[in-house]
Amino acid sequence: MNNSFDVLIIGGGPGGYVAAIRAGQLGLRTALVEKTHLGGICLNWGCIPTKAMLHGAEVGHAMRHADRLGFSVGEIAFEIRRLVEYSRSVSQRLTDGVAFLLKKHNVTVINGEGRLLEKGRVAVRGIDGGEQEFRADHIILATGARPRALPGIDPDKSHIWTYFEALNPAALPRSLLVIGSGAIGAEFASLYNDLGCDVTLVELADQILPLEDREVSALVQQQFAKRGMQIFTGAQIRSATVNGDRVSCLLKTADGEQTLEVDRVLCAAGIQPNIENLGLEALGVEMARGFIQVDDRGRTNVFGLYAIGDVAGAPCLAHKASYEGVRCVEALAGLPVAAPVSADFIPRCTYTRPQVASLGLTEARARASGREIRVGVFPYQANGKALALGEPQGFVKTLFDAQSGELLGAHMVGSDVTEQIQGFGIAHTLEATEESLHQAIFAHPTLSEAMHEAILAADGRALHQ
Amino acid sequence: MSTIRTLEIPKWGLSMEEGTLAQWLIKEGSAFSQGQDICEIETSKITNVLEAPWDGVLRRVLAQPGDTLPVGAVLALVADEQVSDSELDAFAASLNSGAPQPAAETAPSPAVTTSPEPSAPAAAKPAAQDAIPAALRGETDETQVNATSHALRLAKKQGIDLSKVSGSGRDGRISVADLQAAITAGGGSAELQARAAVKAKPRHTTQDDSQIPATPIARRLASQLGINLHDCRRSGSAGRVSRADVEALAALRGRGEQSAARTAEAVEERAAYDSQPLSAMRRTIASRLQESKRNAPHFRLISEVDLTRIQALRREVNSALPSLKVTLNDLLVKACAQALMSVPEMNVQYDEASQTIRRFHTADIAIAVALPGGLYTPILREANLKTVGAISRQLHELVTRTKAGTLKAEDFQGGTFCISNLGMFGIRQFDAIINPPQCAILAVGAAESRAVVHEGQIVARERLTLSLSCDHRVIDGAVGATFMQHLQRAIETPSLMLVEEARSE
User: Fold this and answer.
1) CATH class of A160-269
2) Which residues contact B311 (CB under 8 A, 6 or more apart)?
3) Domain limits of chain A?
4) Which one is the CATH code of B201-258: 3.90.550.10, 4.10.320.10, 3.40.50.720, 1.10.3720.10?
5) For A4-147+272-332, which CATH class?
6) Domain range list for chain B
7) Peptide bond just before A315 cis, omega within 30 deg
8) Where does B372-485 show beta strands of DSSP type E?
9) CA–CA gap between residue A352 and residue A342 (Å, rounded)
10) Which CATH class is domain B1-124?
11) Residues of B246-263 as b/e, b for ≥16 C-beta within 10 angstroms?
């Protein structure tokens, strides 16, 4: 009976471990299978350690600009290994925290690699190679994703990196070429630039941060360029060849091809789901564009089998995985589940300098939807707190449906916007109209006043504009 | 006016006949306020808390924990401090004798009335009638007067002829206020108005209020306070019910306050064991199964069935369809459903109180699910009308919901037949106790390979022992045996599930 569970989850990332805690809370006998480290990529090689590194970059930036506040810092010495160690210690602390939480909620953690044997049965190959079998009424796949491979570019881990190496460099390279300017690529470009590296950013789409509102991307690109980054949009790296300690990259743009010589290349052109060696084919699990196909409660076509998070489709975000994990467990436990949040309204945060945060439709998509929309924009230059912080670059943009007053989109770029986007998320979840948001009081002096002003601006009522 | 009022076993559901007092939540002699929890009452289905219908002082406890009493039976007497113990004794005695309470004899004044009013028959006319002016007394000819129904009822109760009262309403309609005025004018006194005022308390709508616009906070608060959003004003933005609206209504009903702290349990002395008071669930199991064992004469029928073919069928289905994982239990449910349809005398509930047998048209089969805290029996309804696939999916969901504690009352109420499976523990055979009002239960052992004589040879076959317990009051041995024959046939010849009629006659 010890090998039998009500719920068994494969993958201990932010989808899997959260689902396990929820199942434990509901009194279900729960097991979590994890092959390397609890917390998954998010806690160990993603969200959290990058934020620790970016914190270091911010401190560097602040020190370099401390003179205008009267501080003479002198020459700044920097050892990247110390920053890496700091970042690793933060990850370790959180991973330990997850282990504690799982124990607290009576979740059995099984170390090893899980594989479906048949409906309701899983084999776990332990680190020692031994295999053990488990049974569960409900099996949830939460195996996540990994960096996507690009043709002509073979990440060799020494010169051509993925985010693993970028988070754990032996030394700071003099130059770095980043392929892909989504959240991961843009954050590393911003980080290494702030650490003093020559950064080149190459994006296939015609704007960096291709999922973001065009005006937001334009401001970030302008700020990146001002910081000395070289940026190519509508461009592609055809090949990357290691020559001694350098990498030759063949860059193709609209103007033709050229070769760029850099110390290191970071491949950040998207991710692909971890669907291999899970036994999916034998069970006849239906797929959709490489991801496991699920309904809005995470159910696959197979009896008692579910999938959540990155492996179940975009957007590949930790908070989306956690949301789906809780939802999936509550639904299978018979709790009422509300209508699902549309993928567009899952908040997106990018920790570049300036930061980017958004939810809902971009202005272009809102206009293309054929609705009559109202747009409000308010710049940080007119916000007292932003000026006091010396961070006047940025703005807040709101999009409302002119008829219903529904919030269609919110786009923020500037200092600390990632901490503020939840305000729009709450408003949207509670189906607030622009009218009800007008009445809310935003404290002074805060950056969030720009949110209020952008809401008012959509009705032509901004007070400081 | 000092009054003795009664707290009674309420009727919480159509089928509720009696209730068992589980525990008093307030002590004799203590005052309580409207809405406060008074005591826990268990029925065969639930344990519920009796809330005070009004303010009062619990003067005399008449029922002790464990007492099972019919609906309407008096649990306790409620009266002000002025009412003397002897008056209470007399009142209690009148309840026991079943006679109309001799209020006038024991206490000329103040008057004693029982409440709620509907339980006070006309014969128990209160002494308050003395206060009605003689000029008004008489009987009202209801066809001849124009009065509100409330006024009519009060007049009848007080022995007043309404034709002697003048009405102030439209077309001279007589209201309670008119009646009151007439009594006062005639030099009498009555508390009609006070009662009317009590009656005029805020509405208690019970219809679904999910359509009423309300802020999320207001909706949650209302549900916590048992307030229907229909009854609230809507002062929030966009015409929504706001938190303030719900709180206003709650204040009006006097339910916002915290209920008084429950009495602390006496500290047990250290002993060689831990004393655990039975949980409500444990108590329910204990009382129901005790009752079953005591009242229902159980007899048992045991047979062994061959699983070779039904297991082959199961494997075939499971390997052909990713979307299904049929278990032996799912197939047993289907086989039982079919056997119940073939032997409708088995598909019954026994209503002991009315001495009737309820014969059901569908096979609503309960499945015993063991949890650390006790046993649940969620019901798979209309199993006879469902495919094995549908039974499998629903049972899977039902079992998980049972474990997660998200079953609703309707998920485990009713049923005619129960299946209890201890096969996963390796139990070969056992006897189960019937879960009333069901009349039979099937105990399923472990499927295992056994040496049997098959076509003249001793061979190993996968076999299963089934033990059926029946309530002999309503199911005879031959009926149970016929059922077991049908069940065995359904299990050993599973292809019959494809062709047999799923409905009873």
Assistant:
1) alpha beta
2) B328, B447, B462
3) 4-147+272-332, 160-269, 354-457
4) 4.10.320.10
5) alpha beta
6) 1-124, 132-200, 201-258, 280-499
7) yes
8) 374-376, 379-380, 417-421, 440-444, 448-454, 457-471
9) 25
10) mainly beta
11) bbbbbeebebeeebeeee
Task: Residues A354-457: name the CATH superfamily.
Answer: FAD/NAD-linked reductase, C-terminal dimerisation domain (3.30.390.30)
Cα separation of A252 and B65, whole Å? 86
Instruction: Tell me if domain A4-147+272-332 and domain A354-457 are identical in fold.
Output: no
Chain A residues within an 8 Å CB radius of B392: 303
Distance CA B50, CA B69 (A): 14
pTM, entire model: 0.73
**A439 in reach of chain B (CB within 8 A):** yes
Q: How many angstroms separate the CA of residue A28 from the nearest CA in chain B?
A: 6
Interchain proximity A120–B325, CB inside 8 Å = yes
Instruction: Count other Cβ atoms within 10 Å, centred on residue B433.
Output: 17
Place of tokens 């015993």: B368
Spatial separation of the C-alpha atoms in residues A166 and A147, rounded to whole Å: 12
My answer on whether omega of the bond before B437 falls inside 30° of 0, hence cis, is: yes
Number of H helices, E strands in chain A: 14, 24
Confirm whether the ipTM is greater than 0.90: no
Residue B66 structure tokens: 């464990």
From the list A37, A65, A444, A452, the catalytic residue is: A444
Identify the H or E element spanning A400. Answer: strand A395-401
Binary contact (B403, A27; C-beta < 8 A): yes
**What number of C-beta contacts closer than 8 Å exist between A and B?**
59
Tell me the residue length of chain B. Answer: 505
Cβ of A137 within 8 Å of Cβ of B399? The answer is yes
Which segments of A342-420 does DSSP mark as H helices, in order?
363-368, 384-388
Numbers of helices and strands, H then E, in chain B: 13, 19
Give buried/exposed letters for B344-357 (b at 16+ CB in 10 A, else e). Answer: ebbbbbbeeeeeee
Of B126, B138, B136, B128, nearest in space to B186 by CA: B136
- What is the fold, at CATH topology level, of the domain defined by B280-499? Chloramphenicol Acetyltransferase (3.30.559)
Single-letter residue type at A374: R
Spell out the per-residue pLDDT of chain A, length 465, in tens. 479 999 999 999 999 999 999 999 999 999 999 999 999 999 999 999 999 999 999 999 999 999 999 999 888 899 999 999 999 999 999 999 999 999 999 999 999 999 999 999 999 999 888 999 999 999 999 999 999 989 889 999 999 999 999 999 999 999 999 999 999 999 999 999 999 999 999 999 999 999 999 999 999 999 999 999 999 999 999 999 999 999 999 999 999 999 999 999 999 998 999 999 999 999 999 999 999 999 999 999 999 999 999 999 999 999 999 999 999 999 999 999 988 989 999 999 999 999 999 999 999 999 999 999 999 999 999 999 999 999 999 999 999 999 999 999 999 999 999 999 999 999 998 888 888 899 999 999 999 999 999 999 999 999 998
Distance of CA B16 to the CA centre of its chain: 6
Residue from the list B322, B324, B401 with its beta carbon closest to the beta carbon of A283: B322
For residues B138-162, one letter each, b for 16 or more C-beta atoms within 10 angstroms of the residue's C-beta and e for the rest, the string is eebeeeebebbeebbebbebbebbb
Q: Which helix (H) or strand (E) holds B84?
A: none
CA-nearest of A58, A53, A55, A49 to A94 is A49
Answer yes or no: same fold for B201-258 and B280-499: no
Nearest alpha carbon to residue B367 among B293, B305, B404, B417: B417
